[in-house]
C-alpha cells in the first residue's frame, strides 16, 4: 500500500508481465463526514459565542470582598460568582465583530482562477432561516452528496480557493483561508485586551487597568 499525488494504491498481486488495471473511486462518505463535522463544530462555536453576547447581567451581584467570603460557604460563593460573572462579555465588540466577519467569510462567493464562482449553497449548505439561530448552518444532505459525487475537487477549491501568496484577494481566498485569518485577528484582539498566560499585566489593557 502506498500513496502518490494524494491517491492511495493497494497492490493485490504480482503481474508477471501481464497488463495491469487500475481503478479509482472517491471516498464520498469520508468527504461528506468531514464537511458535516466542520458544520457541526462551526455551529457549536457560534452558539457559544452568541450565548455570551446575550448573557444576562446581574448588576446587584458585585465582586465579593474578602470579608464577605469569610461569611459565606463555598457553595454560596460559587453561586454568587456565577451571577457576578454573567454578562461580562455581553455585546462585546471583539466577539460580535468576529462573528460578523466569519459570516462574511462563509457566505461570500469564492472566485477560482478560471472565473468559476463557488458558493456554499452550491453544495447544499445554507444559513438557517430562523434569525434567532443567528447564522447557524444547515445541510441538505442529498445535495451535498450529489455535489461530492459529481466533482469533489470543487468542494476542495471552495475551502482552499486559488493558490497564491498571502496577498491573494479576498474573492479568490477559500473559506478555510478566510476563516483562519479572521480567527487569528479575533485572537490577537482578545489577547491585546485580556492577555494570555505568557503576558505580564502591563502587556494588555485589562492588566494595565
N-to-C SSE string, H for helix and E for strand:
EEHHHHEEEEHHHH
> What structural class is derived from the secondary structure elements?
mainly alpha
Instruction: Tell me the major beta sheet.
Output: 2 strands, antiparallel
**Roughly how much helix do the residues carry, as a percent range?**
40-55%
Give the strand tally: 6
Strand order of the largest sheet: 1-2
Query: Low-confidence parts lasting 5 or more residues at pLDDT below 50?
Result: none
Radius of gyration: 25 Å
Portion in beta strands = 5-15%
Give the mean pLDDT. Answer: 91
> What is the CA–CA distance across the termini?
60 Å
Shape: elongated
Helix segment count? 8
General description of the model:
The chain contains 8 helices and 6 strands, in the order ββααααββββαααα. By secondary structure, the protein is mainly alpha-helical. The strands form 3 sheets. Strands 1-2 form a two-stranded antiparallel ribbon. Strands 3-4 form a two-stranded antiparallel ribbon. The chain has a two-stranded antiparallel ribbon with strand order 5-6. Strand 3 and strand 4 form a beta hairpin. Helix 1 packs across helix 5, helix 4 (93-107) packs antiparallel against helix 7 and helix 5 (141-150) crosses helix 6. It starts with a strand and ends with a helix.
Task: Describe the protein's topology.
Layout: E1 2-4, E2 7-9, H1 28-54, H2 66-70, H3 74-85, H4 93-107, E3 110-111, E4 117-118, E5 125-127, E6 137-139, H5 141-150, H6 152-160, H7 175-194, H8 205-208
Antiparallel strand pairs: 1-2, 3-4, 5-6
